[in-house]
């Protein structure tokens, strides 16, 4: 016991001595830094025009720097480095290049942290901002180093480090504190600081980061998204930054941004509180760049729409338009509360949600989505994603449904045929190993996995809605089939199926309806509850409360499908 106490006492004493020694060394180095600075300012023997002297001063500053004590020293150091930037970066072409690069990154990281106090009126933000601008610019390094690939590598490493140290958070605070809330993108030429901030926002997004660790580029996009797009928009973001990034002249890397959004490590696709703001940005900037997306980029765009649309708050208008005679117990859907905090200069969730739905109904958006499903090479994933998007719109936002899109799909016989083919060809693997059509599983009233139900319910819902709508406008001659003309060609018809196909289809729909009743109201058969529990356990749901919530959610989805 005595030995243990003695050992602990030694450790504590060592810690205290180390702390006191460090404080003493900080004081010595701080005094030495001030002495050199005074000599440089008075024109003495110590000159800041010498690269080695600058390196010495930076080394001392980085050793003792504490923001509450040394922020003015940092600003003075930035002033001299900006003035003598060419002398300082010469160190990158010699044996001390790693030391110089380390010092540049550390200094810029300290500037980022200092700028986060930009709401302090006593802080001079101009020099730290200029420091970030100068030492993240290729124009600072190229005249000295004369090697484009080396300079690009340096810039990438510097930007990556800065972003990790809160670069985008600093810019976000600067934009909201130093720009007026009334600023618009058209004012950028009259407000110099606005142009500088916009350029600094865009700069890290245009590099490949091939010289940095794997995933660096995704980290850049994730940091940008987290700080600027994942929270309620301020007036400056809504009226200035977003319109600026939507301008084709800014060359925003839209397709790369979409890819980064869906990566699991970004975390953006799994947080519903961020969805309205991200979705609005995707749609707004997409108005400029949709036409330039590759085929793979369009597929990613469709995935993003499907992901974020399902996370939008349920529109109040969509809920109010439910049938008056609907069973309140069946339609007990919880509406996400659309909150707004008046007076804080932020755009409300309700307004952004409505704007998102309006943008989905524009001619450009409609044509883009229709072209994707009408092309001969359209894959099953495209149809499934489109069905999921339409299903979400019709269930959660009934009064805001893009009518042009849905009417165009309803009156396209090829699309309806393809949709029914997908539904009838969907299969699942049973416990015996055999593949069984999902329609057959539904007809039996057998519960299915969440994955299977998520595959077929949106497709089935969309098909039922569109086909029932198209039937109303089909003439009897089209329904029963026009006679063959003399030329041997049948007249074009809006009827997607022949009478023979309709017989088979009607039989399938009848059986499916009977099965959906069992799935929507599992309490009608006592043994079904155990089947539901077993099905959810098979996909990893173990908690009773979680299982009950999943069962209730599934029941609501089947009820909605049955009513269509």
From TrEMBL:
<dbReference type="InterPro" id="IPR044611">
    <property type="entry name" value="E3A/B/C-like"/>
</dbReference>
<feature type="region of interest" description="Disordered">
    <location>
        <begin position="318"/>
        <end position="342"/>
    </location>
</feature>
<comment type="pathway">
    <text>Protein modification; protein ubiquitination.</text>
</comment>
<dbReference type="InterPro" id="IPR000048">
    <property type="entry name" value="IQ_motif_EF-hand-BS"/>
</dbReference>
<keyword id="KW-0436">Ligase</keyword>
<dbReference type="GO" id="GO:0000209">
    <property type="term" value="P:protein polyubiquitination"/>
</dbReference>
<dbReference type="GO" id="GO:0006511">
    <property type="term" value="P:ubiquitin-dependent protein catabolic process"/>
</dbReference>
<protein>
    <recommendedName>
        <fullName>HECT-type E3 ubiquitin transferase</fullName>
        <ecNumber>2.3.2.26</ecNumber>
    </recommendedName>
</protein>
<keyword id="KW-0808">Transferase</keyword>
<dbReference type="GO" id="GO:0016874">
    <property type="term" value="F:ligase activity"/>
</dbReference>
<dbReference type="GO" id="GO:0061630">
    <property type="term" value="F:ubiquitin protein ligase activity"/>
</dbReference>
<dbReference type="Pfam" id="PF00612">
    <property type="entry name" value="IQ"/>
</dbReference>
């Amino acid at each position: 016991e005595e030995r243990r106490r003695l050992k602990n006492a030694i450790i504590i004493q060592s810690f205290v001595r180390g702390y006191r020694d460090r404080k003493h060394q900080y004081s010595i180095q701080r005094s030495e830094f001030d002495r050199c600075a005074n000599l440089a300012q008075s024109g003495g023997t110590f000159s800041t025009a010498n690269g080695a002297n600058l390196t010495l001063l930076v080394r001392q500053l980085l050793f003792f720097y504490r923001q509450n004590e040394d922020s003015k020293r940092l600003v003075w150091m930035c002033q001299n480095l900006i003035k003598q930037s060419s002398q300082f970066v010469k160190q990158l072409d010699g044996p001390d290049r790693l030391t110089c690069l380390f010092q540049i990154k550390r200094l810029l990281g300290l500037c980022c942290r200092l700028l986060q106090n930009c709401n302090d009126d006593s802080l001079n933000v101009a020099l730290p901002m200029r420091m970030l601008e100068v030492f993240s610019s290729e124009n600072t390094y190229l005249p000295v180093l004369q090697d484009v690939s080396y300079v690009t590598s340096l810039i990438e490493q510097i930007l990556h480090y800065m972003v990790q140290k809160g670069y985008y958070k600093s810019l976000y605070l600067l934009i909201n504190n130093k720009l007026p809330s009334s600023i618009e993108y058209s004012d950028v030429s009259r407000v110099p600081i606005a142009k500088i901030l916009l350029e600094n926002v865009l700069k890290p997004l245009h590099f490949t980061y091939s010289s940095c660790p794997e995933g660096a580029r995704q980290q850049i996009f994730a940091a940008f998204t987290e700080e600027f797009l994942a929270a309620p928009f301020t007036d400056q973001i809504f009226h200035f930054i977003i319109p600026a990034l939507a301008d084709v002249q800014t060359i925003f890397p839209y397709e790369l941004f979409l890819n980064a959004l869906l990566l699991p490590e970004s975390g953006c696709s799994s947080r519903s509180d961020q969805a309205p703001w991200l979705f609005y940005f995707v749609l707004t900037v997409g108005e400029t760049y949709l036409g330039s997306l590759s085929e793979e980029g369009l597929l990613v765009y469709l995935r993003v729409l499907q992901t974020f649309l399902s996370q939008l708050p349920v529109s109040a208008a969509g809920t109010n338009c439910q049938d008056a005679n609907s069973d309140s117990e069946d339609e007990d859907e919880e509406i996400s509360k659309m909150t707004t905090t008046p007076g804080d200069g932020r755009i409300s969730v309700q307004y952004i949600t409505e704007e998102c739905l309006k943008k989905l109904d524009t001619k450009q958006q409609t044509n883009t989505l229709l072209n994707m499903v009408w092309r001969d090479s359209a894959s099953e994933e495209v149809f499934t994603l489109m069905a999921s998007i339409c299903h979400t719109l019709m269930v959660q936002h009934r009064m805001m449904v893009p009518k042009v899109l849905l009417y165009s799909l309803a009156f396209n016989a090829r699309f309806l045929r393809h949709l029914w083919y997908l539904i009838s060809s969907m299969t699942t693997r049973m416990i015996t190993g055999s593949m069984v059509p999902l329609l057959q599983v539904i007809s039996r009233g057998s519960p299915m996995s969440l994955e299977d139900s998520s595959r077929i319910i949106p497709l089935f819902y969309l098909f039922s809605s569109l086909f029932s709508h198209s039937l109303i406008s089909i003439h009897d001659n089209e329904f029963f089939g026009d006679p063959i003309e003399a030329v041997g060609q049948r007249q074009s018809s809006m009827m997607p199926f022949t009478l023979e196909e309709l017989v088979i289809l009607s039989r399938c729909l009848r059986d499916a309806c009977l099965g959906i009743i069992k799935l929507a109201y599992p309490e009608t058969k006592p043994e079904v509850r155990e089947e539901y529990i077993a099905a959810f356990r098979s996909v990893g749901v173990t908690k009773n409360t979680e299982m009950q919530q999943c069962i209730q959610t599934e029941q609501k989805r089947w009820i909605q499908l049955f009513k269509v």
